[in-house]
Amino acid sequence: VKVKIPFGNKYLDAIFSVPEKKPTYGVVLTHGAGGDMNFPHLVSLAAHLASHGVLCLRFTCKGLNVAYRSKAFKAVVEYLKLSDDYKLSGVFLAGRSMGSRAAASVIRQLSQDDDDDGFIQGLVCLSYPLHRPKLLSKLRDEDLLLISCPVLFVSGSADEMCEKQLLEGVVSKMKAPKKIHWIDKANHGMAVKGRTTNDVMEEINAQVFSWLRENVQLQHK
Fold this sequence. Notes:
By secondary structure, the protein is an alpha/beta fold. The protein is built from 6 helices and 8 strands, in the order E-E-E-H-E-H-E-H-E-H-E-H-E-H. The protein has a single domain, classed as Alpha/Beta hydrolase fold, catalytic domain (Rossmann fold, 3-Layer(aba) Sandwich).
């Protein structure tokens, strides 16, 4: 279902992937710096989630400024929260690369607001860009360290923007419940020599869905 989401005096293009049965939970998903919502990994993940009963709303926001991307993400979350068509108990925010930075920033901002109502259940970071290539001294970890909801990282072990030991170091300092799933030998674009894109995407999709399921169950025991 295609929708246009109001954002300031503009609109963001977005697509709902809707499960057959009425969903209780949703995932809001966005792309990295170079792509849009039709990036194959996002399309694949959205279809996988919807086929397993999770609503997925993915959107395009062009703009290379994380603050701008975060504002757009916030607008999409508000839109979904107020939607009459889909009454959800909660959502997970998910993004690829720069999109996951924007998602982390939104969660940190919302958790610092007094009106945090528990609508946001967790964060999924696909290829989180912890640092610029070869610039290992400056880490983009400030939002991660302030988040308290559950976080899943899915990263390539050969990601040139997320050195394995550095991410493990940041994660060990995080207060939030967290998990890292390493895609062996994958780069920042999740390409692995000798494996098809579909094969890698299936691994990512399965990891994301099983983590979502665990975290929804944890909160409703």
